[in-house]
Amino acid sequence: MNKRKLIVGNWKMNGSLAANESLVRELLAGIGQPRCEVAVCPPGIYLAQLQALLAGSPIELGVQNVSTHEVGAFTGDVSAEMLKDFGVRYAIVGHSERRQHQAESDVHVAIKAKRALAAGITPIVCVGETLREREEGMTDFIVKRQLAAVIHLNGHCSSEIVVAYEPVWAIGTGQTATPEQAQQVHAVLRAQLKGVTEHADRVRILYGGSMNAANAAELLAQPDIDGGLIGGASLKAADFLKIVGAAA
Ligand code: 3PY
After folding, report:
1. Residues noted as catalytic
2. Packed helices 47-54 and 17-31: angle between N→C axes, nearest 10 degrees
3. What pLDDT does 86 receive?
4. 238 exposed, middle or buried (CB, 10 Å; 0-12, 13-18, 19+)?
5. Which contiguous run of DSSP H or E holds residue 204?
6. What ipTM was reported for this prediction?
7. pLDDT digits over 25-50, tens only?
8. pLDDT of 197
9. How far is the CA of 73 from the centre of ligand 1 (A)?
10. Is 229's C-beta closer than 6 angstroms to any atom of ligand 1?
């Protein structure tokens, strides 16, 4: 199946007008014609800047969050339709940092995915277990429950979603799942998708959780790893470009 890999930079709450501009200029100077799809997700306040900097380039624009609401009295929220105005192509939903610090539940995440899809934005649905859940043998149960919420709320599984497996114990810790550990969970997610859609092989399942320039090639060589959601390494142009280069 001809499915291009997808490499997404999650800048988290990092950047400034000056830092964004120099990072993007370095990326554009080095990216050439990538064999994979590439996107960056800056903090939302910088969308207009990034839209202008990336115009006409092979790098797509993404965001780190989207409101559960469509419009109205929801102070601080930004709707999927508003994001669309800035050319946003991808929206990360359900990152474990939001599940943990903003008390986002599976239902919130599913509604966010639904809002994104309705606006023509591809949700990148993050799933992943904590260290304790892994140690208790709960990994498969947790990731399947998190993905099931999105599948059920949407009534079907659109091949337009992207799934990102991000073991919580590997986020911001420098610890990475081994390629075998990651592939095992990706295979579980693929099997779950196969149970609900004939297009399961078209759904991209990214690995996230301290993917970096040194470990990307091995992770991306696994049969069910279709790309990466990159945290810290996406803030260094040279590292991010190496990861892009490793995604054939
Ligand atoms: C990480 O790699 O730390 C991430 O959280 C990517 O989203």
Report:
1. 95, 166
2. 30
3. 98
4. exposed
5. strand 204-208
6. 0.97
7. 999 999 999 999 999 999 999 999 99
8. 87
9. 31
10. yes
Q: Which atom of ligand 1 is nearest to the CA of 170?
A: 3
Q: Which residue type is seen at 131?
A: L
Q: Is 210 near ligand 1, meaning CB less than 6 Å away?
A: yes
Q: Please give the biggest Cα pair distance in the chain.
A: 48
Identify the CATH number of the domain in which residue 102 sits. Answer: 3.20.20.70
Query: Which residues of the chain register pLDDT less than 70?
Result: 1-2, 155-158
Establish whether 94 is an annotated binding residue: no
Q: For a pocket test of ligand 1, which of 92, 210, 219 has the largest count of ligand atoms closer than 8 A to its C-beta?
A: 210
pLDDT at 87: 98
The whole domain housing 108 covers: 1-10+86-248
Residue type, 124: I
pLDDT given at position 155 = 65
Domain count, the chain: 1
Whether 128 is covered by a domain: the verdict is: yes
* pLDDT on residue 2: 57
**75 inside domain:** no
Task: Count helices and strands (H / E) in the chain.
Answer: 10, 8
Q: Is 231 annotated as a binding residue?
A: yes
Ligand 1 contact via 212 beta carbon (within 6 Å): no
What Cα–Cα distance (Å) separates residue 65 from each residue in 109, 115, 123, 129? 10, 11, 9, 20
Amino acid at 141: F
